[in-house]
Write a structure and sequence with these properties.
By secondary structure, the chain is an alpha/beta fold. The chain contains nine helices and ten strands. The relative contact order is 0.17.
């Protein structure tokens, strides 16, 4: 079984500062992998390279067995991305935003698919209002809906439940897990919500200063570091204890 993502000896430098340092890992089909680390560890930079938004300084990235960035357009037809920090055009309605994205992906009945996702994310009541009228939590859910419009095989998520209240965040995790299981979707995501990571991830990669310093299931990492929970493991790694 070929890996969905395969990264080999990846580095990324910014003005002589190395953000990603000789990084190698793989993510298998249908796996949910949490990418953790303190601010500045290289998580967002890595995701941007996986999307072809940044070019590596050296190393290789293969997604679906294809080279990124050489085969970027083919890869992105089968993948998608969501970040709570990326905004859609505020003057358009959520329905218009999703329909446009769906048409760009060549989704059949894009408007119908958009309505279905707005309902799934429980923001259908806002579908015909200007996107600027949405709360920050609703905008996060709209971004998640956008990331599902093309039924991606690979989903890259950057703080997917940021700005959501605990109840909505929990419901959103249930929805994501259900979709992931039904479609055998591969998910790689970052989060600072350790309870979320424990609930979602099959495996965790801990990044620190561009290196993977720990890897394993949430349960195995808690046991290995002899801590009570994943948050304490995070603190130990981030503080270098």
């Amino acid at each position: 079984m070929s890996a969905t993502i395969e990264v080999k000896k990846l580095t990324k430098d910014f003005d002589h500062y190395r953000v990603i340092d000789d990084l190698s890992f793989a993510v298998n089909p249908g796996e949910i992998v949490g990418l953790l680390g303190p601010n500045g560890a290289g998580k967002t930079t890595l995701i941007h390279m996986l999307l072809g938004l940044l070019l590596p300084t050296s190393g290789q990235i293969h997604v679906f067995g294809m080279d990124m960035p050489r085969d970027r357009s083919k890869i992105l037809q089968r993948a998608n991305f969501s970040s709570a920090y990326v905004q859609m055009p505020f003057a358009l309605t959520p329905l218009q935003n999703l329909e446009i994205v769906g048409r760009l992906y060549g989704v059949r009945k894009a408007r119908e698919k958009a309505r279905e996702l707005l309902s799934l994310m429980q923001i259908e009541a806002m579908s015909d209002r200007p996107t600027r009228a949405l709360s920050s939590g609703q905008l996060s859910r709209l971004n998640l809906a956008k990331s599902l419009i093309n039924d991606p095989e690979l989903l890259l998520l950057d703080e997917p439940t940021a700005s959501m209240d605990p109840d909505i965040a929990d419901q959103t995790r249930v929805i994501l897990k259900k979709i992931q299981k039904e479609k055998n979707m591969t998910i790689l995501y970052t989060s600072h919500n350790m309870k979320e990571v424990e609930a979602m991830a099959d495996r965790i990669l801990f990044l620190h200063k561009g290196f993977i310093v720990a890897e394993g299931s949430p349960k195995d990492l808690v046991s290995y570091f002899k801590e009570e929970d994943l948050e304490q493991v995070f603190l130990k790694i981030a503080r270098g204890k």
